[in-house]
Amino acid sequence: MRRVWIYRGWLGAGWLLVIFVIWITLTPKPPDELQLIPHLDKIGHFLAYAVLAAWFSAVLPGRRWLTGLTLAFIVMGGVLEILQGYTGRDPSWFDWLIDIGGALLGAGLPRIWLGHVYAWIGGGEHDLVHKPTAG
User: Fold this and answer.
1) In whole angstroms, how far apart are CA 14 and each of 51, 54, 66?
2) What is the pLDDT of residues 43-101, one digit of tens each?
3) 71/77 Cα distance (integer angstroms)
4) How far apart are the first and last CA of the chain?
5) Entry pTM
6) DSSP assignment, residue 27?
7) Cα(57)–Cα(92) distance, rounded to whole angstroms?
8) What's the count of helices (H) and strands (E) in the chain, helices before strands?
């Protein structure tokens, strides 16, 4: 029963991250703090999509999920950039390329680390954490 709650909590937190990324991307006037450091928005794009891809791939293991999640986040980034043009902000193809890079990185190495975290808190074994042995 505990695993079910951890699984649901992990997914729920992930969906909150998705909602936050959508909000921060589509809000007509982002927080002024994002303008204080040059290129902070680019770093934010990269980290947002890396965390999203890694977060969901930690709880939804397997090649099919990994491919589908990565493509979903790549498409999400592109659609949000297009929609951003309707909010009074400037859409940027460069931002989308950064989103793609983050999603690809998040689907790789960080998912191994988050898979360990998910297994450690009791969410169950992850295919990248405990590979079954033959024999």
Assistant:
1) 9, 10, 15
2) 999 999 999 998 888 777 677 788 898 999 999 999 999 999 999 888 999 999 999 99
3) 10
4) 30
5) 0.78
6) -
7) 27
8) 5, 0
